[in-house]
Amino acid sequence: MFEFDQYLGFLAFLTILTIGFWLMIFLLTFVIPYWLGGSLIEFLKEKREARKAKRLE
Questions:
Q1: pLDDT band with cut points at 50, 70 and 90 for residue 56
Q2: How do the domains of the chain map onto residue ranges?
Q3: Does residue 2 sit in helix, strand or coil?
């Protein structure tokens, strides 16, 4: 059915596919929400500081 070279190529393909899948899952569940949360907090801090500066004038 498979030659040994084809078998190694197939295993390499499955390994790369699996690594890509888990990396995508990791990015979607941890990195992107962390980035969005940090951006939202920074945005709110900037708005709060602008409101304080306006009030002091």
A1: confident
A2: 26-56
A3: coil
